[in-house]
Amino acid sequence: MTPETRIEAFDIVISGAGIGALTLANYLAPLGFKILILDRRPAFDPLHRGELVQPLGLAILEELSLLEALKQTPHTLYRSFDFLDDQGRLLMRSSYGMGEGPYPYALAIEPHLMDHLLAKNLSSYSHVVLRHESDFRDLTVDSSGVTAIYGRGGETRQVLARVLVGDDGRHSRVRELAHIPGTVESYRDSYLGGSLLLPEDLASLTPAVRESAGRYFLGPRSIFFFFSVSERRRFFLVLLPERNREKFFSKGVEAVLEKLDRHVPGFAEIARKNGLDKAEDFVELSVWKVDLERWCADGVVLLGDAAHAMNPHVAQGRNQAMEDARVLAPVLARALLSGPLVRREALLPYERARIPVTRSLHRLADEMTRVWNSGNPLVVRAREAAFRGIGRIPSLERKIVTTIGGTRILPLTLWDKIRALAAGLFPS
Ligand SMILES: Cc1cc2nc3c(=O)[nH]c(=O)nc-3n(C[C@H](O)[C@H](O)[C@H](O)COP(=O)(O)OP(=O)(O)OC[C@H]3O[C@@H](n4cnc5c(N)ncnc54)[C@H](O)[C@@H]3O)c2cc1C
What we know:
The protein is globular and about 70 Å long. It is α/β, with parallel strands linked by helices. It is 37% helix and 26% strand. It has three domains: 3-74 and 110-185 and 288-358, FAD/NAD(P)-binding domain, CATH 3.50.50; 190-285; 366-425, no CATH class. Flavin-adenine dinucleotide is lined by residues 15-20, 38-41, 51-52, 135-136, 167-169, 173, 191, 193, 237, 285, 287, 304-306, 312, 315-319, 321.
């Protein structure tokens, strides 16, 4: 290579500007590391979908001094969520106040707004570069570092780093090129989702649409989650069994809207006003599981969905990507002192701390999927009884809410489940 074509060099190159990457860069930027973040998207475009920032994510934002700024961004604060049956009868109200930790609430937000906030904070560091429209393609690793190859504006470019971080999502190219073994599979069922903008005159709406209560309606082989992400935006997810749109819409879109309207009166009208009158207008959100044997190799480390995409039943993917970043940041900071290439051994403390946590969330999510997505009448009856029972036993509710909050994973034991079932079937 001639001096004229000298290759750009950074301490860290991150492929993918997901929440994991942005959180990691926010932890490491004040330490002075040179960081390049590449993302193939042209910008952080609105996704118009809703996600929950759980107490775990709130604690991380507080640590980064960004929580107050997030609270100035449009969001809805949830102290509890309601679980209802197919007839709209309350099964359980799960209140964050019952959980451990300093935050008795979660924030529902449109994720791109949060990404913007974290990216804006990075823009004050001249040694951190965020490059959109940059498609990471290839890598080579040798003792002088990692060379990352990416495409931008029709050109192929390369950059040298001491470590390449893969935050490039469930179909991670970094993971593939680093030959990291494990399971990458989609769940049998997916979701249809939609974002609804309410009219300015909120008083004209039905209370069920206007109010911001977060409600999960669980029926046989049906789930409908309706919640608010700001004063005028609502978001919903509907289970799409077997990912079969044709079957789901076999009686027409109107029949689907009317069914959802029985749960949330006024929903159908708002959905129609938002242009949801054709099956194609419902966006499919597929659900993946990534469960790997390792998260790092010489010169390469994964985080977020690239390492552990999980079922949204646990509402944790974004929060766990942030936790990856929090745990990885000090490990990387130390490892970067050790030479031109960050070796796998130096990254092991991160992998050892994080894989067991995400594995237990996978186990929990799989169990929830079996129970929540079921159409078997016995399972449905047992599920409804267990929900009622959990609501009657404070120690079990505490476990559930703490786990969903993400600060500690406390799955129910077999004995807990028997107690919940008994309390639901035979209230004292
Ligand atoms: C229906 C649904 C609901 C969810 N609800 C919640 C919730 O309530 N709470 C929660 O915590 N989580 C939730 N999640 C999960 C959450 O969305 C993800 O876990 C989270 O966004 C993952 O973040 P990440 O950092 O892994 O990056 P990702 O969001 O996966 O972003 C990856 C980035 O990499 C970029 N990229 C990919 N390949 C390349 C390449 N070759 N070169 C350059 N760039 C590349 C992409 O453009 C993208 O910007 C939900 C998920 C789904 C599907």
